[in-house]
Amino acid sequence: MAKKIFDSLDDLGRFSEPALMILISLAEGPKHGYAMTQDIEAMSGLKLGPGTLYGAIARLEECEWIEPLPAEDRRRPYKLTNAGQKVLRARLQSLRTVTRIGQARLAEN
Amino acid sequence: MTAQRLVRFYPRQWRERYGDEFVQVVGEENLTTQQTVDILAGAVDAWISPSVRASVRSSAAGNASGGAAMIQQLKMKCATSTPQYTTKDGLISAGVLIATTIVLLALGIAANRQGYPTLGETLKGVAFPASMMVSMQFWLLKGQPTRVQTFLVMVPLAFLVAISYLATKI
What we know:
The complex is a heterodimer. Chain A has one domain: Winged helix-like DNA-binding domain superfamily/Winged helix DNA-binding domain (Arc Repressor Mutant, subunit A). Chain A is built from four helices and two strands. In chain A, strands 1-2 form a two-stranded antiparallel sheet. Helix content of chain A is 58%, strand content 6%. The relative contact order of chain A is 0.15. Chain A has helices spanning 16-26, 33-44, 50-62, 82-108, and strands at residues 66-68, 78-80. Chain A starts with 15 loop residues before the first helix and ends with a helix. Chain B has two domains: 3-80, no CATH class; 83-169, no CATH class. Chain B contains seven helices and no strands. In chain B, helix 6 runs antiparallel to helix 7 (146-169). The two termini of chain B are 34 Å apart. The chains are: A mainly alpha, B mainly alpha. The interface between A and B is medium-sized, with 29 and 36 residues.
């Protein structure tokens, strides 16, 4: 069977939105889980549950879009990898396009 | 209920990899219902998702044995999360699903005719969902450890049969 390489956040199914939020949060710099949830809530109003957060972190790690740094006092920070930046840029570009089209269609009415 | 308790529902390798930081994120205080449900759903995901299991395995290998394992870890890509079942597995699973459903329905009808209406109705009621659960080990649960397969099939199955039996009897 041909091997499938994930190259888009859409491949993460229901975890794609939490994963996007995590990537955006880490674009600012390395953060541990608690700091990510606080940042994501402040930025988007989305409160990620711990099960969802770590489900998304595990998938992002497996895809090598984020990587763990040495633990600090039982808290392990994560940082965005180059591949993660690339995926995030692609997704944000796609969202920009969708937003532009949506706004243009609304303006027509 | 605290995170310390709920984290026990996650696989051992997952706990070794994420357990400490997970509890740190959640804190020691009692959880809300929403958090509890989210954590339990995460536990089910950690047991059955090939992608999460692969991530935890590769992290554990890297932590455990240094250089060689790190190289192995670097070789592991998202490809490892490709579902392990093939078209053939899907067909086998469908066959098991159909055959088990027919057998259970036939047994239910036979039990009714032999004068065991409660047993008969129970068998007919659980025929499809029970067959679905039994067939899972040929596709969704393929590649999982035997005890995980047994747990994820037998526990819901026992629960389903008990509920169906009680509902029929009342």
